[in-house]
Amino acid sequence: MAALERPTLCLVIDYGQRPAIAEARASEAVTNALGLPLQHLRLDLGDTGGGLLRDDTPLPDAPSPEWWPFRNQILVTAAASVAVRNSLHTVIVGTVLDDRDRHADGSPAFYEALDRLFALQEGAVRVVTPAINETTTALVDRSGLGEDILAWTVSCHRASLPCGQCPGCWKRARVLSSLGLLQTPDP
Ligand SMILES: [Zn+2]
């Protein structure tokens, strides 16, 4: 998404997730390679989450093992605040079609509601989701990026050293393999 949209400012958030170090490192490598500015933001949401991203203990009624309730709502709202601080007015979220299969906060209805919620408040911030009807594979393919940059990406839910055995690791392997990149064995 960053390669295609070339945002004025990229944001990576350490909200207490276990792979936060890897995500920050990957964000730095990718934005450096693309020549884009990156801001790090720290929000300690550890006491609000659960599942694979926090401690492998699913929360009651969790729809998926990595569920962290209201996470996207909180993170996009934090991004909107950063936008206001920088006199920016659009938050670009890299959510994709596959996200809505697992979480209600990956659906078009969710992002449309969030956009309307921001419109009720000061700041004139909009939320856009350019790839919400596109699969991860299609988005990565459209980005035109090669292994030199994609090799830096991480998707593990559990750790900063990818476990290779969680839905995030499986998805990354599946997507990159389907594009003939970073050949890895099927999970
Ligand atoms: Zn993993």
UniProtKB/TrEMBL annotation:
It comes from the Bacteria. One of its GO terms (molecular function) is metal ion binding. InterPro entries: QueC (IPR018317), Rossmann-like_a/b/a_fold (IPR014729). Keywords: ATP-binding, Ligase, Metal-binding, Nucleotide-binding, Zinc. The keyword Cell wall biogenesis/degradation does not apply. It catalyses: 7-carboxy-7-carbaguanine + NH4(+) + 2 ATP = 7-cyano-7-carbaguanine + 2 AMP + 2 diphosphate + 2 H(+). The keyword DNA-binding does not apply. Pathway: Purine metabolism; 7-cyano-7-deazaguanine biosynthesis. It is an enzyme of class 6 (ligase). Its EC number is 6.3.4.20. PANTHER family: 7-CYANO-7-DEAZAGUANINE SYNTHASE (PTHR42914:SF1). Belongs to the QueC family. This is 7-cyano-7-deazaguanine synthase. It comes from Phytohabitans suffuscus.
